[in-house]
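Chapter summary example: a protein plus S-adenosylmethionine.
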Amino acid sequence: MASGFDPSEYGRHIAEVYDELHADLSPDAAVAMIAHYAAGDAVLEFGIGTGRIALPLVATGHQVDGVDGSAEMVERLRRSREGASLRVEIGDFTTTTMDRRYAVVVLAYNTINALPSQDAQVQTFRNAAAHLEPSGVFLVENWVPDVAAFHRGRVVRAHEHAAGRVQIEVAELHPAEQRMSATRLAFTADGVRLLPVNHRYVWPAELDLMARLAGLHLEDRWQDWDRAPFTDQSTTYVAVYRKDT
Ligand SMILES: C[S@@+](CC[C@H](N)C(=O)[O-])C[C@H]1O[C@@H](n2cnc3c(N)ncnc32)[C@H](O)[C@@H]1O
């Protein structure tokens, strides 16, 4: 793993405003797909965060455990009655272990890119596989790298333009290491907040190979949690990796 990597860093910068910034992002389709694969059995979420997906998933009657590197994000999760009773370990999901297995392990919302290196991403697949019951599935939500959007290695893009809130991202690409360093600028009436976003971006087929190294195989790749077909135009995907039998 790259030296100096700190899995708690992201949450330290964003925990206070995470739920507000993602208020428009409905978890419904993700919850429906995860519940479909879990079929009543238990789920483990790597990077459970503030519980954006986990809490509505618990409401469907599923046991949801979690791992997260950020005590600040988990403190937010703990504020709700349902969140207070969830089993969540504070730690790095590349290595943290739980003492049971699950029907589904989930890594949502592009969080695979938060890892600093290909080795750490491979190790995450291995850790997910180690937590799966026989024939369990690892669900990974990610974006397709869009290197064509960058001009001379840089891009400025508007992520949100809503009443009282604007989000702009300034991003720089480092193709040799497949890294993108970016700063998200969130403008509200209270001022400007700078949120660092550091990604080791990864290609869909590269994830498929990581899965094979970990004893999993690609069963499906959808464009999104609603199961739209994944096509040449897709900019996002949800991959379903099933444990080899
Ligand atoms: C983008 S947020 C996603 C939170 C939640 N899954 C959601 O969909 O809203 C990523 C989360 O992963 C956590 N995280 C990132 N890298 C991690 C690592 N290596 N180990 C544990 N948690 C990590 C962050 O602290 C943060 O809570």
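Key point: Residues 7, 10-11, 47-49, 52-53, 67-70, 73, 92-94, 108-109, 111, 114-115 surround S-adenosylmethionine (CB under 6 Å).
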